[in-house]
Structure formats: structure tokens, C-alpha cells
Specification:
heterodimer, A: about 450 residues, alpha/beta, TIM Barrel, eight-stranded mixed beta sheet, 16 strands, about 20% strand, globular, disordered N terminus, B: about 425 residues, Urease, subunit C, domain 1, 2 domains, 13 helices
Chain lengths: ~450, ~425
């Protein structure tokens, strides 16, 4: 079945031109109906010299140079000559990291200003809405994108909300100013599907006297959905060997993509016991969970999560808003890391999403205080390489290595401190933010002409 | 007054630990008082108060010495607008006492009752350097019910007894969009309703006996609400007004002038646009410096520069944390204001002496000065930074435990985490 999808995908990609589509788009007959139109801005080659570099591979280079050419990292190291014709950025006294990746964002689907008509993240009409796609609701003019850019965020995964068990497809975006969501879509990034355990779905539907009203109901409905998906996938497979294809079903298409491994499961799940149930349920149907999100109790099962290879996207500070969040600890990410797992600091919040680096700093300092020794070079992975892995784009972004897309942040200070400001930000080697250059600070269309937008602010 | 006498009596009955004399030596003391920062000094704590502070202070005989080793010592932080003592889990109604929707209890709601010093939130906030809080009511709106005021805030301590420090430190009122909604959907309606209420309260205050005999006209509010508002119209209790839009702020200033009210602005997202007016009116502001989202039509001008601009204009500004369970982020909020250009001392002042002044508590807390209650924190780094952590916390002279339920959970699971990686190394 995977073969069929791949052939169809390649045919569609060839028809659309050279632009790579998603890395497999499920069992759909039209694998990439809303293709990315994002194209990197052509720029001349650049060198950042003399900076302290956290490469995202775990390494830290005290006095390093990064060469960028054709939007890609050309070279990085301690003793690099800058070839002629390269624009030189003086990084002395500053820090450079890969562009930050927010693995859990609702920008564009839960926009500012928050009005009754702009809340587009929960299709709260049925517990399984696997058929909805976040990209169909992303408002590129959400002013929060620019604020995240000023915080060094270059890539975001935009997820549906957690009111439903299966909330719909996520979309991975380049954080560039654009008029359409297609012009922000990360070329070739796989889709994710948002699934949610626990209180939110059972509260959303139980309050309406509908299923799920309990955690039992949550799991029963998940299983029913994947039984249907497995059946759909079988019918698709039969069609691949000459039979009649089933009528397209958008909901089942997404879930069949999960069973195929093409669509990555992004699972909102707080409690350790519920994560363990979800892992077994995935095994029952033959899919793996790419990342648990929020996962405030991950530290309780950190060795198991490490063995399973499931990333943990979490916070340091947030806790207690719900019963299932009561056992959160500041050291969650460092403990997952210490167990050999894939720890991620995410935001789920437009204010926190402007300072993922600080949240990582809080987790880092708490971990060190508890005796968990994590180097700066390792900890930066929590907001760069590890979220890239959760999003399935780790071969493209998240580290400063030759051949990677040149998403970079130049920080005024150690990025884990509260005082670090993102002075300059690049996406694919092109500047997208500069604290001293108004050309890269333009607010979204929405804010033009609104009160208080006059410079200086 | 009676409450204060009771508090004094209770303080006398406090356990003997408070009577211990402690000398913190070799601290870099950010006093936040007239002494400024003492590069290397000693603080003597006796009977829960600061007995002496300075560079050349002798350690009294018999004092327990705490070696600060050059670390920064600050006053304990004050979390304004907090739910500490009133809330346990936000989504659980039974564990959330920040507001009520009982008819006839609006202004009369008093956050000083029902405080829970055993709340799990308190040790967590304390480990963020917070030693005092302004427990502040929030609205619990019920359909079809008009609730002009959320109630009265109370000053509380996060260690020692009693938890209640002073009740009725401010009366909470939301104006702007939220206030307009409660008043039927428009700002003008709330303004008219408030004027009518204040007129009622003044009338009531003059004619209580006639009211009780049923000889006054009908008032809009219950007797309990009217009584609660008397100190507000008499200018003895400040009105804590939630407001963001520049024009709304001007309206609040005008209202305060006309009604002769003391006002504290809360939120004030567009305060920077009317900073000169706020400064001229000598109205203090409580704000959350990281609030820069244009989250509503009344905060389109929100910016990280708000705090710095208000302070530069001469406005007395206190910072807030991130609410309920997230008060411990208060110090990072101050750090972010510093990152946005505010001098470091001003950032620290906005979470110590400034809120103490704003709520009329500066004679007791907010700085490290002789005679003040001994709320102190020793830090292993910069108190406003993500990488700095507290190493010792004193409230009313008592060393506080450096644990919370969260650290206990962490310590329960840490051994398994360590064991798993050493197994990995063996493989």
C-alpha cells in the first residue's frame, strides 16, 4: 500500500514541478492537494564569524564560523576561512543556534485578536474529526507569527486543538511573512495528526451527554476509529492490486496514513498511565506515536519512552490548571533527556512561544540543580534538533551542519538566559528578523493603521 | 483594626523559630531601600524582623550565621493579582475559591476569608522567591447576572502565621471590554452604572440608620456590597481597575478625578500611549511585562516596551506573574522587562518595593531595612534570570523549606531515571 501511495505521490510531484511534496501523504488518491508554494528568497552567500555556536548536534564551538550558501549551511567550524564575496556578520560576543522549532503551536488557527470568529483550532462537533486539516484555517496575517519570529522561531507545527480525540491534521510552516498558507508550508514536511488523551475530550463530549464521557470512552472510540481505518486501508490495498478503490473518505484517509506511517501521531497526553495505554493501543493497530505533547508526567516513565523512541514535548513551568497536569515538575525535560530520550520544550501558547529559549533555560537550571548535568550544547536540542525529529524534518533543519537548511538565530547573549535577544534571524539563509532594521520588522496586515503601531513603540 | 490586633497577638504566639536570631553574612544585598545595593554586607534577623543591615554590622552573640558567600540577597518578592491561598486546581470548581456568583455578594466578596495556607501552590511560588502575595478575586460570571465588582483583595504571607496580613487592600473592578459586557454590552453603560452605584454608596454611608428603617430610596446593590464600597468612595481603599485601551485608561483617570477615588490600573496594555496622563494623576500601574499580544481590540498597542516607558515617565509600576499556578514566573517577567531595556534595579523594584508601596504595605515589607519584616531570598545567581535559583528563603525571619510537592515527585522518580542510563552505559 505504501508503494501505491508513493507512486501516486511521485506522479503528482512530477506534475507539480520539482517542488517536493510531503514525504508520503497517506493513502490519498491526490496526495498533495494543497502543495507548498514556499520558495526560499535568493540571497548572496554569508558568513557569521567569531560567534559561540550551539550547533544542535550537541556540540558547542566557542569561537566559530558558519558559511551559508544557496540557503544551506555550507560549513561550520572553529577555523574556517571566509571565501571572497561572502557577506560577513560579526558574531563576536554573540551566540548562534539553529532556528528554533516550536513543536506545538496554534498560531494562525487561534489568532490575535481573539474573537468569537477567529477561534479555528477545535472542530468541536464530533470526537473524531481526522478529516479536518489545520492548514485550511491558518490565517497568515496572525500578528503572532511576527512575534514568534522575533523570538527566533523559524519553523512551527500548527496543530488542531485537543477538544477532540482526533482533532485533525497538523501542518508544518516556515515562519515567513506570506499572504497564503501554502507560501508558508514547509516543503516536503510530513503531516501529523493531533490526538488527545484525558480530560479535554471527555469533558468536551461528556458535558453534552455524548461519548466519550470517560477515559474508557476515549480509548474505545480511538480503537473503533482505527478498526475502521484498518478496514479502509485493506480496501485501498486491494484496489492497488486491481480492485475497485473505495469511495474517498477524508477521515479514514488521514487515519490510514497513520497506519501507513506517513502521518505522524502527535499525541496530547499528560498522565504516565495514559501514555502507556496509548503506546499499547498503537501496537494493537500497528502504528507508533511520534511525540507525546504536554506529557507532564513523562518523567515517571522516562526510561520506557526512551526505549520506545517517542519524543516528549513539554514545558518547564506550566502546571496545575487541570487534575491531569497536577504532577508536572520543572525537571521533566532534563529527566527525559537523562533517560536517553528525546526531550522537547514546546509552547502551546503565543506568549511563551516568543521565549522557548528561556523556558528551556528554566528546565536546564532546574535539572542542573537536581544534579542532572546537561551541557548547553545538548540542551539546545530541546528546541531545535529534537522538535525537528518529532516533526519528521530532522534531515532538513534543527542542526547547523553542512547541507542543512540555513535557519539561524544570532543571540545577544547565552540563549538560555532571560536577557538573550534574537538580534537577527535567518530562514534558508534569508534574513527574516533584525532588531535594528525595520525592513525585517513589518507587522502583519492586520496591525497596519491600528492604534499604537506608530514607531517607535 | 481588630483584625490587626488579632494578627499582632497571633504573631506573638508564633512558634519559637521566629524568635531565632539569624545573621546572613557576606551577602551582596539589594536592599531596595535608601541604602541601595550593599556590595558585601550582613543582615541580622531578630524576632521575625530585620534588626540591622549594612557593610559593618557585628554578628550578635548566639546568632545562627548563614554564609551567603557573595551571593545576591533580595527582599522576598510580592505577587500581585495572585490566586495563592484561594485556588488549588483551576478546572475543579470545588478547588477554586477565587470568585463567587452569589447574588448580593459582589464588592463584599473578601479574599481574606477562606485562605488555605496548606495549598500546594504556595511552596511552588515560594521557590520562585515569592514571600507575599495579593490574593485577588476574579469574577465568577453567571448567566444573566450583573456583577460590577469582583470583590476585595487581601495581602497574604506565604510562610509563618497567620497567612492573612491585611484584608481589603483593594477593590477589584474590570472596565474596558469585560466591564462593558457585564454592564449590558457597552462601556457607557458601565460608566453610568458605576456613577449611580457610587452615589448610592455615598447616600448609604450618610443614612445607614434610615436605610435600616427602610426610609431610603432603593439602592442598586445589597447592603453588604454598599458597606464594602464605603472605604472606596472615601478614598481609603484603592480601586484596582482592569483596563487596557488608551482611551479607557483616560476615562478611568477622569472617573477617579470626578469621584475622588484612589485608583490602581491593572493590565494597562496601552498605558505607554498615555503614560504622561497616568504619571500626572499619580496613579500606579500593575502589569505583566511579557503581555505583548494584540489579543483583543483593546490591546492592539500592546508592546514589550510598555513597562519601561511607563517607568521612564515616572509612573509607579509593579509587575505581575503569570497567574494562579504560574506565579513563580514573576521574576522572569521582571527579567524580560530588563531585557527590553529597563534598568535591573527597576525590574527588581517592580516585584518588591513597588507593589509594597502600591498596596500600602511598604512600612512592613518590600525592602531590606531595619524594622521591616524579614522576608529575604538568597540566590545562586541573578534573581531575575532563568538560570538563577534561590538557595535560601526567609519569611518573617523563618527559614522556609526548600521543597514542594513537585520536588518530592522529582526525587521519587530521579533514581529510576539515573538507573536507566547507567544500564544503557553497560549495554
Amino acid at each position: 500500500m505504501k508503494r501505491v501511495a508513493t507512486i501516486l505521490f511521485l506522479a503528482a510531484a512530477c506534475a507539480a514541478g520539482a517542488q517536493p511534496g510531503p514525504q508520503g501523504a497517506g493513502a490519498a488518491a491526490t496526495p498533495d492537494p494543497f502543495p507548498s508554494t514556499y520558495r526560499p528568497t535568493p540571497v548572496s552567500p554569508m558568513a557569521i564569524t567569531g560567534a559561540r555556536i550551539l550547533t544542535g548536534t550537541g556540540a558547542e564551538i566557542a569561537d566559530g564560523t558558519i558559511l551559508v550558501r544557496d540557503g544551506l549551511i555550507e560549513a561550520v567550524g572553529g577555523n574556517l576561512a571566509v571565501p571572497a564575496g561572502y557577506e560577513v556578520v560579526d558574531g563576536r560576543g554573540r551566540w548562534v543556534t539553529p532556528g528554533l522549532i516550536d513543536a506545538h503551536s496554534h498560531l494562525g488557527v487561534s489568532s490575535s485578536p481573539n474573537t468569537p470568529l477567529s477561534g479555528d483550532h477545535n472542530e468541536g462537533t464530533a470526537p473524531n474529526t481526522a478529516e479536518v486539516w489545520a492548514e485550511h484555517a491558518v490565517w497568515p496575517q496572525d500578528p503572532q507569527f511576527r512575534l514568534a519570529r522575533a523570538g527566533g522561531v523559524t519553523t512551527l507545527m500548527i496543530l488542531p486543538g485537543s477538544g477532540n480525540l482526533i482533532g485533525g491534521r497538523s501542518v508544518t510552516l516556515r515562519n515567513v511573512p506570506a499572504a497564503t498558507v501554502q507560501a508558508m508550508k514547509f516543503p516536503g514536511a510530513p503531516y501529523g495528526v493531533k490526538m488527545a488523551c484525558g480530560e479535554n475530550p471527555k469533558r468536551s463530549y461528556g458535558a453534552r451527554n455524548r461519548s466519550p464521557a470517560t477515559r474508557m470512552g476515549n480509548v474505545a472510540l480511538f480503537r473503533r476509529a482505527f478498526i475502521d481505518a484498518a478496514d479502509y486501508a485493506r480496501r485501498l490495498d486491494r484496489a492497488g492490486s486491481g480492485g475497485d478503490p473505495p469511495r474517498r473518505d477524508l477521515q479514514l484517509e488521514t487515519l490510514a496514513g497513520v497506519l501507513d506511517g506517513d502521518i505522524l501521531v502527535q499525541n496530547h497526553c499528560y498522565r504516565a498511565d495514559e501514555m502507556a495505554i496509548m503506546i499499547d493501543m498503537g501496537r494493537e493497530f500497528g502504528f507508533t506515536i511520534r511525540a507525546f505533547h504536554h506529557a507532564t508526567e513523562a518523567y515517571k516513565i522516562a526510561p520506557m519512552l526512551a526505549r520506545e523512541g517517542i519524543c516528549v514535548a513539554t514545558w518547564a513551568s506550566s502546571w496545575g490548571s487541570k487534575m491531569e497536569a497536577l504532577d508536572a515538575v520543572e525537571e521533566n525535560a532534563p529527566m527525559v533527556h537523562a533517560a536517553g530520550g528525546c526531550a522537547i520544550i514546546h509552547s502551546d501558547d503565543a506568549t511563551l512561544g516568543q521565549r522557548l529559549n528561556q523556558e528551556a533555560g528554566i528546565a536546564l537550571a532546574a535539572g542542573r540543580r537536581a544534579g542532572i548535568d546537561v551541557s548547553d550544547g545538548e540542551a539546545i536540542r530541546w528546541i531545535t534538533a529534537n522538535p525537528a525529529r518529532a516533526l519528521g524534518i530532522e534531515e532538513r533543519v534543527g542542526t547547523i551542519e553542512p547541507g542543512r537548511m540555513a535557519d539561524l538565530v544570532l543571540w545577544s547573549a547565552n540563549p538560555f538566559t532571560v536577557y538573550a535577544l534574537a538580534e537577527r534571524v535567518w530562514i534558508d539563509g534569508a534574513p527574516v528578523w533584525d532588531r535594528t532594521d525595520p525592513r525585517y520588522q513589518a507587522p502583519s496586515d492586520f496591525l497596519l493603521g491600528q492604534p499604537g503601531q506608530q514607531a517607535p513603540r | 483594626m481588630i483584625a490587626r490586633c488579632l494578627a499582632a497577638l497571633l504573631a506573638l504566639a508564633a512558634p519559637p523559630a521566629a524568635a531565632e536570631t539569624v545573621a546572613i553574612v557576606n551577602g551582596r544585598i539589594a536592599t531596595m531601600g535608601p541604602a541601595g545595593t550593599i556590595e558585601r554586607g550582613t543582615i541580622v534577623l531578630t524576632d521575625g524582623r530585620i534588626a540591622a543591615v549594612g557593610a559593618d554590622i557585628a554578628v550578635p552573640a548566639g546568632a545562627r550565621t548563614v554564609e551567603a558567600e557573595g551571593r545576591i540577597v533580595t527582599p522576598g518578592f510580592i505577587a500581585s493579582g495572585a490566586g495563592l491561598g484561594l485556588i488549588e486546581v483551576r478546572s475543579v470548581d470545588a478547588a477554586n475559591d477565587r470568585g463567587a456568583n452569589m447574588a448580593g455578594i459582589s464588592a463584599a466578596f473578601d479574599a481574606g476569608y477562606g485562605l488555605n495556607p496548606d495549598s500546594l501552590l504556595i511552596p511552588v511560588a515560594r521557590l520562585g522567591g515569592i514571600t507575599r502575595a495579593i490574593a485577588t478575586p476574579v469574577y465568577d460570571d453567571a448567566p444573566g447576572r450583573e456583577l460590577l465588582f469582583a470583590g476585595q483583595a487581601a495581602a497574604v504571607a506565604l510562610g509563618g502565621r497567620p497567612m492573612l496580613v491585611r484584608r481589603g487592600v483593594a477593590m477589584v473592578l474590570e472596565m474596558g471590554e469585560a466591564g462593558a459586557e457585564r454592564a449590558g454590552g457597552a462601556r457607557a453603560a458601565e460608566r453610568v452604572a458605576l456613577r449611580a452605584v457610587f452615589a448610592d454608596v455615598r447616600d448609604f454611608a450618610r443614612r445607614r440608620a434610615a436605610y435600616d428603617r427602610g426610609e431610603t430610596r432603593d439602592y442598586l446593590l445589597s447592603r453588604a456590597d454598599l458597606e464594602a464600597l464605603v472605604p472606596v468612595v472615601e478614598g481609603r481603599m484603592p480601586l484596582l481597575v482592569g483596563v487596557d485601551r488608551a482611551s479607557d485608561i483616560r476615562d478611568v483617570l477622569a472617573l477617579a478625578r470626578e469621584e475622588e477615588l484612589r485608583v490602581i490600573l491593572v493590565g494597562a496594555a496601552e498605558g505607554w500611549r498615555v503614560a504622561a496622563d497616568i504619571a500626572a494623576a499619580q496613579v500606579p500601574v500593575l502589569l505583566t511585562p511579557v503581555d505583548n499580544l494584540p489579543a483583543s481590540f483593546e490591546s492592539l498597542g500592546a508592546t514589550l516596551g510598555n513597562a519601561g516607558r511607563l517607568i521612564a515617565s515616572g509612573v509607579l509600576v509593579g509587575f505581575q506573574g503569570n497567574g494562579n499556578h504560574r506565579e513563580r514566573e514573576l521574576r522572569y517577567n521582571a527579567g524580560n522587562a530588563v531585557a527590553a531595556g529597563l534598568p535591573w534595579e527597576q525590574g527588581l523594584a517592580a516585584i518588591t518595593i513597588n507593589p509594597a508601596r502600591i498596596f500600602g504595605l511598604a512600612d512592613r515589607i518590600g525592602s531590606i531595612e531595619p524594622g521591616k519584616e524579614a522576608d529575604l531570598v538568597i540566590w545562586d545567581g541573578d534573581p531575575l534570570d532563568t538560570l538563577g535559583r534561590p538557595v535560601a528563603i526567609f519569611i518573617r525571619g523563618e527559614a522556609q523549606p526548600m521543597i514542594s510537592r513537585q520536588t518530592e515527585l522529582r526525587d521519587r522518580y530521579l533514581p529510576a531515571v539515573r538507573a536507566s542510563t547507567s544500564e544503557g552505559a553497560e549495554r
